[in-house]
Amino acid sequence: MLTNTHTSALSKPLGEYIGASDVQIRENRGRHVVLIVDDDPTIRELLRRVLTMAGYRTATADGGLESLAAIDQFEGAITAVVTDVSMPGLDGLGLIGAAAARKLDQGVQFYLMSGAPHSLSMARTIGLPISGTFQKPLDIVALVARLDADLLAPAKVEDEIALDGIGWLGRALAHHDKVTGAHSDQVARYTAILSGAMGLPVGLAEDITSTSVLHDIGKIGISDMILNKPAPLTDDEFAVIRRHGEIGHSILTAENHRLSGMASQIARHHHERFDGTGYNRLAGYDIPLPARIVALTDVYDALRSPRPYKPALTHEEAVSCILKGDGRTKPEHFDPAVLSAFEGIKDVFERVDRHD
Ligand SMILES: [Fe+2]
């Protein structure tokens, strides 16, 4: 029996916590294992008992390292991790970052809880794969509702299928052209950071990040002789390369899902420029927001990447090209809000591992 001695971290009385009466909901919740991570045994035990009462299966850990081992060991069994931010050893941010780096984040929803609001917003800014944040004292009704929405909603199945499709297409492109495959992954990493820094709703930022990986999918329809030509392109070859936007659009546009719709927009419009001098001469806010964001992350990665006909620029040189211009790249090419968000977090880009 829970007592009020457990409620110091909570914002509502215990009586309001959810004990699902609906059998179907309890059954669906029972398909998921939620790993609860907190160095405070009182909060850990409280969350365990409440989530168990609601029908979820639970596991607990008192730190990041132990949790990482559990996610790894029970491969695929843990579908949600609710973790405290501040813990000795590997903290909550480190746990999620390490899980993502080791590719343990696929199929796992991560939630952060903290008493310090700035640590929750920082987690989003650095682009960690976070599904939700909860401020302490915890509103457990909201926490359970969020778990239900993310883990039980039927729409998630469609999203999973769409995300699988994005993964398959991305790997097909990487087989066709390794350089573009690596560039696409890198652009998605930068897009996660930049979308987070723009203060977009988390779901939208995640969608833009997921779909940005397909921005160059149209290159699958371009000869690899041209793509990998170890010299500057002729005008005719450049005209062929320019077709990749429309090819990408035609590959993705047949699908009727918000993620393929967004991927299609990005594929078609990532070479637009805000001043209207890009591929299709679209200008300003006529260019879809996801494409305005990827336009910058694409250029940043292209500047940082070595090509047979040009050396890689340093981070500082690439930043200077984008913010001040170098004759070819100009600040007017980018959405001022995207540019300003980039200026604010540009140093985070430097800390992202590079593929080359
Ligand atoms: Fe492109």
Automatic annotation (TrEMBL):
Residues 33-151 form the Response regulatory domain. One of its GO terms (molecular function) is phosphoric diester hydrolase activity. The keyword Nuclease does not apply. SUPFAM superfamilies: CheY-like, HD-domain/PDEase-like. InterPro entries: CheY-like_superfamily, Cyclic_di-GMP/3'3'-cGAMP_PDE, HD/PDEase_dom, HD_GYP_dom, Sig_transdc_resp-reg_receiver. PROSITE patterns: HD_GYP (PS51832), RESPONSE_REGULATORY (PS50110). Residues 158-356 form the HD-GYP domain. This is Putative two-component system response regulator. Gene3D superfamilies: 3.40.50.2300, Hypothetical protein af1432. It holds the Pfam family HD_5. It comes from Thalassobaculum litoreum DSM 18839. The modification 4-aspartylphosphate is found at D84. The keyword Coiled coil does not apply. GO terms for biological process: phosphorelay signal transduction system. It comes from the Bacteria. Keywords: Phosphoprotein. PANTHER family: CYCLIC DI-GMP PHOSPHODIESTERASE TM_0186-RELATED, TWO-COMPONENT RESPONSE REGULATOR-RELATED.
